[in-house]
Design brief:
The protein has helices spanning about 5-15, 20-30, 35-40, 65-80, 85-95, 130-140, 150-160, 170-180, 185-200, 220, 235-245, 265-285. By secondary structure, it is an all-alpha fold. The termini are close together.
Length: about 290
């Protein structure tokens, strides 16, 4: 069993990661306080209550974007640095900028003219994204938040689950995280069986830990032992993917990602983010 080099990861983060991910690491692995994480997240906040400024490294507009809001709220939750004022402002931004059907788009038109990954394109009509909507709604439900945006997003996600066909790998990730935390547990347990069947029918999960390319693994859909989708995968498969994750630490101490590195700055920022993610996932599964 490979054991990650945590000290090596700390040195990698010190030399390569942004303050946000250094503070995440400090909080999660070195007994750091929650306040610096909160302050690091707040540095990406806009006066409209949303978050931008490349908090999500692939979208480098200063303007508020749903993916940046998702990352902001997820980071506050992960570090137990929840801040009601920041959250309330984000919810108000979400409500003011929701698509007609509710929820959140993937990319807002304010990305135009700014550096961005090739897939960061605003869709005509601003449809709701299952990925961003699911991620944000899940975090708010996990924290037992209440807001009119969350009510509408929850209704939207249930409707989309009832009509689900092939939402793509990121759509599945958003939906499964939503089902992990939505308060209606009996409905969630019923829904995950149908969503789980589609996950395999649509062939979006790579069961081979050595699969190459931009693949999505069981740990992307069921990262924690208590994940609602964990029962979809046998123990041997999970263990193999944990072995692969732990063994994927690079010689420089960090982890990397399997999607297009379109910008040196974005690539460096993503490596800091996924390095903390990897260590967190390894630890929560009892490997650290």
């Amino acid at each position: 069993m490979t054991t990650p080099d945590v000290d090596g990861a700390a040195r990698f983060l010190a030399g390569n990661a942004r303050v946000l991910d250094r503070r995440r690491f400090e909080r999660l692995f070195s007994g750091g306080d929650a306040r610096p994480v909160r302050d690091a997240v707040a540095a990406f906040r806009n006066s409209d209550g949303g978050f931008g400024h490349a908090l999500e490294p692939d979208g480098r507009t200063p303007a508020s974007q749903p993916a940046a809001v998702a990352m902001a709220l997820g980071t506050l939750d992960e570090a137990d640095a929840w801040d009601e004022k920041l959250v309330a402002g984000a919810c108000e931004w979400l409500a003011a900028n929701a698509p007609a059907e509710g929820g959140a788009s993937f990319v807002e038109p304010t990305i135009e003219g700014w550096p961005r990954a090739p897939w960061w394109e605003a869709e005509e009509g601003r449809p709701a994204s299952l990925f961003t909507t699911g991620q944000i709604a899940a975090t708010l439900h996990a924290r037992r938040a209440e807001h009119r945006w969350l009510d509408g997003a929850t209704d939207l996600l249930w409707r989309r689950i009832d009509e689900l066909d092939d939402p793509g790998p990121y759509g599945f990730r958003g939906l499964l995280r939503f089902l992990q935390h939505v308060p209606d547990r009996s409905r969630a347990e019923e829904a995950v069986e149908r969503v789980g069947r589609l996950l395999f029918d649509c062939d979006v999960v790579a069961l081979d830990p050595d699969a190459e390319g931009e693949v999505h693994t069981p740990l992307d859909f069921a990262p924690n032992p208590d994940s609602i989708a964990r029962h979809l995968f046998d123990e041997a498969t999970i263990e193999a993917h944990l072995d692969h994750l732990a063994g994927s630490q690079a010689d420089d101490g960090g982890w990397t990602f399997n999607w297009l590195a379109w910008s040196p700055v974005a690539a460096s920022e993503w490596r800091g983010s996924v390095t903390v993610d990897a260590l967190r996932n390894i630890r929560v599964n009892g490997r650290l």
